[in-house]
Amino acid sequence: MSAAILSVAHVGVRFGGLVAIADLHFDVAQGEIVSLIGPNGAGKTTAFNVMTGFLKPSQGEVRFRGTSLTGLQPHEITRLGLSRTFQRTSVFPDDTVFENVMIGLHRQGGGMSRTLLLDALLARTRASERALRERAEALLDWVGLAGRAGEKAGALAYGEQRLVGVALALATEPAMLLLDEPVSGMNASETRIFVRLIRQIRERGITVLLVEHDMPMVMEVSDRIVVLNHGRLIAEGRPEAIRSDPAVIEAYLGQGSAARRAAAGAREVAHA
Ligand SMILES: Nc1ncnc2c1ncn2[C@@H]1O[C@H](COP(=O)(O)OP(=O)(O)OP(=O)(O)O)[C@@H](O)[C@H]1O
Ligand SMILES: [Mg+2]
């Protein structure tokens, strides 16, 4: 295995008396596609919030490309090359898909040089504005929304709206991308297309950490899977090993109907 790009070292998060994460530790190697799975409330989004600086862990630390992320703000972590999408995507519904990406690029600089960004924001020279528009077009093309660029974002299906969030995360030119339930709200064919997109993202050298409840999709796309239950790591390994791991099956069977469907999906894949 190549060197770790991300190391989660004994991270714990408490909310008052609730232990949301306890002693979480795992590495993601450069170029891997790893999934972080677990029943509702297992602590997956909380783990993402720690990795991206939205939450301070009660203990432990996260290292990214050898740098400790302790004490860094979200925008500083993004600048180091770690970017994320959110479980709840919000678009500006009355603006077009293209305008949504342009707004995002103006906000975050879109990975452009500072000078170019300042130009875009202050001088709005034709050249810099054109560069930004070309960048937005390239991003929409990458995530498969080029044909919808002129439509109001609010008119897109929920699953397609999530792709706008992916485009904005990619706009920061990350070395690693964290995706929080990217295919929720997508139908089967949209999900298949999204699996291809994840693979293309990895082919471009971006490491991927995925949180997802769609077990067939997780089993298909992941090199490795890390499983959380009640904030604790209960299993880690290749998809073949995870789908037959008794502790994982038990964790999913003990939960509500969504988790039972997810477990059933995993078994279907196992027996396919
Ligand atoms: N800001 C917060 N304050 C208090 N409790 C929180 C907070 N954020 C999360 N929690 C609690 O921490 C636990 C882990 O939540 P988290 O959102 O990380 O789970 P999850 O694995 O992402 O679940 P889901 O699959 O439903 O998205 C849950 O019990 C949740 O209620
Ligand atoms: Mg979550």
Automatic annotation (TrEMBL):
PANTHER family: ABC TRANSPORTER ATP-BINDING PROTEIN, CONSERVED COMPONENT OF ABC TRANSPORTER FOR NATURAL AMINO ACIDS-RELATED. GO terms for molecular function: ATP binding. Residues 6-255 form the ABC transporter domain. The lineage of its organism: Bacteria, Pseudomonadati, Pseudomonadota, Alphaproteobacteria, Hyphomicrobiales. This is Lipopolysaccharide export system ATP-binding protein LptB. The gene is lptB_9. It comes from the Bacteria. Keywords: ATP-binding, Nucleotide-binding, Transport. It holds the Pfam family ABC_tran. Belongs to the ABC transporter superfamily.
